[in-house]
Amino acid sequence: MAVSDVFAAFQTVLENVAGMFAYDPEAPMLFSSGLFWILFMVFLPVYALLKGSRWKMVVFVVCFSLYFYYKSSGWFFLMLIGTSMIDWTLSHVIFRLSRRWIRLMVMWLSIGISLSILGYFKYANFFLWNWNLMVEGNFQPLDVILPVGISFYTFQSISYVVDVYKGRIKPTSNWLDYLFFLSFFPALVAGPIVRADYFLPQLERNEPATRDNIWGGLWLVIVGIVKKALIADYIAQYNDLIFNDPSLYTGVQTLMGVLGYTMQIYCDFSGYSDMAIGIALIMGFKLGLNFDSPYQSRNLTEFWRRWHISLSSWLRDYVYIPLGGNRKGTLRTYVNNFLTMLIGGLWHGAAWKFIFWGAMHGVGLAVHKACRPWLSKVPDNFLTSFLGWLLTFVYVSLLWVFFRAADFESSLLIIRNIFIDFDWWQIPQFFDARPEWCIMMIALVVFHFVPQAWADRVQLLFVRMNWGLKLIVFLVAVQLVIEFMSEEVAPFIYFQF
To answer: Catalytic residue among 308, 348, 361, 368, which?
Structure first.
């Protein structure tokens, strides 16, 4: 082999290695991508070796987390570092001050900085567009790129500062610990939204992961990959057809697309949460439950106790309760519910459809609370439970239409197709045309209603298996993903938030 050929091969290797460390906006790093798992397999043994030295472990994980965020969102990782510096500094100022009104001012300064950054990147074009409609001007959108995960880590930073102000926690003694908390890569780009009072004590203890943690975490990772890369991405192929051009489809086809998206968004987001919680558990950290079979809910209040638990509890503790919660009369309780969900809708996206989605959930919660005196007199039996479940599921599913559709016009067209152009006799035809899709949906519904105790037993069974059976389970899951996966791994739905 000529020297030039050796040099060319060496140069190719260097370029490939450099490509692993460079940010590619067309291929951000995902938990479901092969590159992440290659890097995580390298990360894990080094992490295990450094775990005994808390300081070295913190430095190593922070570096990996920042690299992970760079691969997900480019140079915006520098903004994350800047945000952590500001919040950590101001939290110490709040902690050391004695006058309440000055502490309150500093807290609001920190919150204002965090919300200003979030507002610019996420809502600047939305507000400018609406202002343009009012003044009939010539609006040119700003060239703003939304950093991945900014909504999640902004809420974490706000809760940290508020908790320091209220005396629930003390600020971390060093900035690096706080950066570890804010940038922890399993939860960085799409949650769960982790509370400082829950996470920081774990960091302080620095306990090694137990055998049950490691294998239980691996089980959650497998379940998450199956939910996301197998189920969500597969059923999304049909759902996208319906939502991209709803005028082409019948009522039955449209209904299946709506039901498909209802399950898709659950599998996609809960699958990510399972992977995040599982990876953290393998590292010896607990992030808490984020989904608890939400489509089992028999009313909207129960739904929000089961769906995206970290966000709904955050909104309760840092928006609903500060607004007055249920302490200032019935009418004010309804208003507070409505405003909280309105903010929740706006958090999800800078568009009127998200605001409408949040507002209608607020209305639904208020209606449920208003009907509680009457509902308490209704017999609690199978029929009433089924009707409560059906009403809740239909309401949630129809609101997902506004969440997913391109605009209000498309949303209304989809709903109109379901109720106006529906023919029951087309259901067998649909099953004949898409048997795999239907079987997957039926299996998903059945598994969703499996009692949590059963799921816990399956996880425990996996933990107690010998390594050979664990390997077989893992390979079967990988084979199923390969068999049903689309041409490329789709981004997680909540990456855009």
So the answer is: 348
d(CA 114, CA 254): 41
Looking at residue 208, its amino acid is P
CA distance 109 to 200: 23
**pLDDT tens by residue, 43-82:** 999 999 998 889 999 999 999 999 998 988 888 889 999 9
Residue whose structure tokens are 């999800």: 348
Residue 494 identity (one-letter amino acid):
Y
Q: What is the pLDDT of residues 197-212, one digit of tens each?
A: 999 999 999 888 888 8
- Asked if 157 and 314 count as a contact pair (C-beta separation under 8 A), the reply is no
Alpha-carbon gap, residue 124 to 132, rounded angstroms: 12
Task: Identify the three-state secondary structure at position 210.
Answer: coil
348 classed as catalytic: yes
CA 149 to each of CA 189, 434, 492: distance values in angstroms, whole numbers, following the listed order: 4, 35, 11
pLDDT tens readout for residues 413-471 = 999 988 888 788 888 888 888 888 888 888 888 888 888 888 888 888 888 888 888 88
Q: Is 98 helix (H, G, I), strand (E, B) or coil?
A: coil
Question: Alpha-carbon distance 368 to 440, whole Å?
Answer: 33
DSSP secondary structure code for residue 190 in this structure:
T
| Residue 480 CB contacts under 8 Å (≥ 6 apart), including other chains | 226, 230
Q: Give the Cα-Cα-Cα angle 361, 453, 315 (nearest 5 degrees).
A: 25
pTM of the model: 0.88
Question: What does each C-alpha distance from 144 to 119, 131, 199, 410 come to in angstroms?
Answer: 11, 17, 32, 26
Cβ neighbourhood burial of 276 (10 Å; 0-12, 13-18, 19+):
buried
What is the rounded CA–CA span in Å between residue 6 and residue 214? 43
Distance, first Cα to last Cα, the chain: 52
What is the 8-class DSSP label of residue 489? Answer: P
C-alpha to C-alpha distance for 89 and 76, rounded to whole angstroms: 20
Cα dihedral 174→180→182→185 (10° resolution): 170
* Contact between 439 and 484 (Cβ < 8 Å): no
Residue 435: DSSP 8-state: H
DSSP helix, strand, coil percent of the chain (3-state; round to 5): 75, 0, 25
Query: Closest by alpha carbon to 317, among 338, 286, 340, 297?
Result: 340
The alpha carbon of 151 is separated from its chain's Cα centroid by a whole number of angstroms, namely 10
